[in-house]
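Render Peptidyl-prolyl cis-trans isomerase in 3D.
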Amino acid sequence: MRNLVWGFLCFVLFYSCKKESGCGYGDHNIVAPANEQQDVETYLTSNNIYSVGKDASGLYYQVFDHGEGNSNPGLCSQVELTYTGKLTNGTVFEQKSTAFTLGSSIEGFRKGIPLIKKGGHMKLYIPPALAYGSKEIKDESGKVIIPANSILVFDISLTSFY
């Protein structure tokens, strides 16, 4: 009985320390459906885009510069980056420098950005399930800037993270 109580106390202590030190973001384990992955592959092939990596989730990417340093950002990292977001028809829907906690972003960013280090440069090809899915994204005036079920293309430079 004494060992059981001691074990329970150790568990509670470990769990509370772990909970306090984490940021609350975990892996969602989302995988894009096969038809969305095929749509991205079709886009890549029809645009003569080769040397592309593929994550198990169905995220496609190109790393142009891995960056420098010994570490990569994680879900709890505050990332500072510059990016251009486009639709597959070439329409730019967003271009900016920004900072945010990686775990609070779309799944494609959560999976892709940790592939580079500070100073790295990459392109992400994100199927809808790893972005906004069947939800339209509108600007402040109510105009749709990202149609539902869109493949997104992001050109990203990771300025810094901490």
